[in-house]
Amino acid sequence: MSTQPLFLVVDDYIQMRSVLSSNLKALGFTNIMTAQNGEEAIRTLKNHPVNIILSDWNMPQMSGLELLQWVRQDKQHQFTPFIMITAEVERLQIEKAISAGVSDFILKPFTSGILSERIRRTLQRKNVRQSTPVAKRPQTETNRPQDTVSSPPEIAQKDRILTILAVDDAPDNLTVLSNLLENDYRVKVAPNGERALKICQSKDKPDLVLLDIMMPDMDGFEVIRQMKTNEDTSDIPVIFFTSLDDSKDIVRGLEAGAVDYVTKPIKPAVLVARVRNFLRYHRGYEELKSTIDTMMDNARLRDDVEHIVRHDMKSPLAAIIGIIESAGKDKNITSEQVKTIEDLSYTLLNMVNLSTDLYKIETGKFELNAKPVNILRLIDKVAGEIILGFATKNVMVKTKLQCFEDTSALGDELLCYSMLHNLLKNAAEAAPAGGTVLVTVLDSEDVKFTIKNAGVVPEQIRDKFFDKFVTMGKQGGTGLGTYSARLIAEAQNGSISMQTSEESGTTIEVVLPSAKPRRQ
Hints:
- Helices cover 46% and strands 17% of the residues.
- By secondary structure, it is of the alpha/beta class.
- It has a 5-stranded parallel β-sheet, with helices on both faces. Strands 7-6-8-9-10 form a 5-stranded parallel β-sheet, with helices on both faces.
- Helix 3 (64-73) links the parallel strand 3 (52-56) and strand 4 (82-86).
- Helix 11 packs across helix 13 (375-389) and helix 14 runs antiparallel to helix 15 (481-491).
- The longest helix is centred in the middle third of the chain and has 63 residues, at 268-330.
């Protein structure tokens, strides 16, 4: 059985379906199905376990947006990653797709590098939550950062003269191209494919390649293929020249990754206009892509914050339910239990309000209004709630004080509460049944405390223990608890660290600024 994800490519143009399928295969994905419209896509989804959908926006009968809305309402596929491929530029339409639950966008025209990055990013978000296997792209550099697609130099430096590389085995053609373009652009020339690839791989890469198809030794198709399978050159746009009028050869060039073509013999006015229009369009395209990326990032942040808040609310709710169930069995409820339920209810209300602060922390807009927080009282409060929440597992939380009784941190009480809840809950989950979580508060110039349990963090995730979505072997784990704890500690000018081993278990150390003046 194949471990690769199953792709569904939806587009009403057969050429576009062919181009996308070819690009996916070049990236190492071979499990691909296609549909020519939304209705056919729905029939496919009902009968096959599709893992990721690539859909055009503008299609007859059912648009990509309508297909997305159907997918999100279908119980079987409501969480299936959905990438919209579009030339749509209206902000309102983009916002509609984001609201409908689109996973990402790819704007036309796109390169194989952009396609690869979008798929990798989308599957990564799915993998950390649902463990879907990802195919690896063959023949690419693995040490290059993959989280961003570099914009053409014209975007970063709009006043810089753009560089165009002309590739043709006929010297007269290179002379003509240079004369046509040198007044507006810096022009480089290459008499063959091998020389063109060296220029594209140099530090001074061109912004656009004009490429002849019919060349000896290495034709234009092979040049494009090598460019698109090399991470360093895959994002350089290519316009190819051809004297061929066979549509199959034109489609072959576009499938290989070219963004446009010009037929020979070259008409100077047409060539100059096509180059100028493409580069102008490309500038606008990159700026639009940046805007859409920002909109998607904001939407993802909101989604992540909602996951964090839902994750953090589970322990107080579990404690409330535990008290109510206990009172129901005893046919009685004490005033102390009523007070605990009241406190926990207010805690839940405050945690809903906390979501705004978490969003601000993630976006770098949080401003700390630091006040003294009695850490010992807060630890006792959270420990009691954790013991109630893990009563069936019989996990105990013990506190060991090696500090003054009035030890107070300088921070935000609700943030400290959320951080402690996450860390103690994680420790209780990792501890064996009947085990103990030990909280030690240390005497130091800062407020320092450790949380220790007998569990061991898997070696595969130790180096990224506090990263977002990192989890392993925990049923229902989101990988957000320790991530939000790190965010909160750092937002309060503190730090957090972890040590783990088979011999001593796992210890989390948190350091927060003290509310007391430092000793001189």
